[in-house]
Amino acid sequence: MPTMLITGVSSGIGNALVRRVAAEPGWTVIGTVRTVKPPSEHGLPDATFLYSFEASDADAAAALAGRILAEHGCPDVIVNNAGYVLYGPVEETPLERIRDLYQVNVFSPISLIQEFLPTMRSRGSGTIVNVTSLGGRLVFPFFTNYNSTKHAMEGYSEGLWHELKPFGIRVKAVEPGYVATPIYRAMDDRAKPTGPYAKSLSAMNRFSESITNRSTPEQAAEETWRAISDASDKLRYPIAAYARVMVRARALVGSMTFMRFMNRQWLGK
Ligand SMILES: NC(=O)c1ccc[n+]([C@@H]2O[C@H](COP(=O)([O-])OP(=O)(O)OC[C@H]3O[C@@H](n4cnc5c(N)ncnc54)[C@H](OP(=O)(O)O)[C@@H]3O)[C@@H](O)[C@H]2O)c1
Questions:
Q1: Which domain, by its residues, includes 84?
Q2: Atom 48 of ligand 1 has which residue's CA nearest to it?
Q3: 147 located within any domain
Q4: Residue 97: inside a domain
Q5: Would the pTM of this model clear 0.85, i.e. be above it?
Q6: Could you tell me the pLDDT band of residue 190, with boundaries at 50, 70 and 90?
Q7: CATH number, position 175
Q8: Is 146 considered catalytic here?
Q9: E-strand spans in the chain?
Q10: How many domains in the chain?
Q11: Cα(123) to centroid of ligand 1, in Å?
């Protein structure tokens, strides 16, 4: 019976992915949440195994992996989905907050991968899915810190793809565009910007508000499931609203032309 571990299943894409995978016959689904309640209280099927996991804690991934290895063995698929957004000017973001962002979005998934890799390698199979972002292929102003974590995971995923291919382990970078989830709450405390970046922040806020046709978490989960169950060795999967079109547009016109054009769209200059 194949087993999938998905981090961050309390809401959004992770939550929808658990429900999507549970609809497939034969899968055991293990999810992580910060505070464990019965699965139904998280809107999840009763058969979901839930573990508590606080990714800000540098030791949590090893502890989680130890428990899962003891209780379920090594998962066939690991989906590093948990993550969050920091929004605001680089100049105004305390280093402490950026450190935590890197801990949760970069070091925690890396640590989890390292914990499970020896077993995956020795049995010659496994799939590692890193939920990166469209913001791992390009960068949105004021999402700079967040997008830099996703660029880190894009590069990491590509290197891992090379290293693990000889062992039969697949690596997938799933790159969502706009998905309507609570992750964008991070923008709320910048709703009325002040200071030297106020004008650009207001413009960026207006641009974000204009993106109304976001994908649903269920649509994103469906595309993620297709990436996971795709038997190919393909690495990158832009999914959900705007991801494919923006990646293609940048490749088509070149990065500088794309950046100058988008800078006018985003910041109105
Ligand atoms: N939504 C989008 O448009 C979009 C676009 C590109 C990439 N993504 C990526 O997709 C993934 C899922 O995001 P989402 O949009 O579904 O957002 P979401 O609904 O906010 O889900 C994020 C999940 O990560 C968990 N998480 C956050 N910080 C954590 C921490 N310190 N320790 C443990 N768990 C933590 C959250 O738990 P809590 O509920 O406890 O906070 C939640 O379960 C993220 O990696 C995100 O960067 C999303």
A1: 3-198+215-243
A2: 176
A3: yes
A4: yes
A5: yes
A6: confident
A7: 3.40.50.720
A8: yes
A9: 3-6, 28-33, 49-52, 77-80, 127-131, 170-176, 236-239
A10: 1
A11: 30
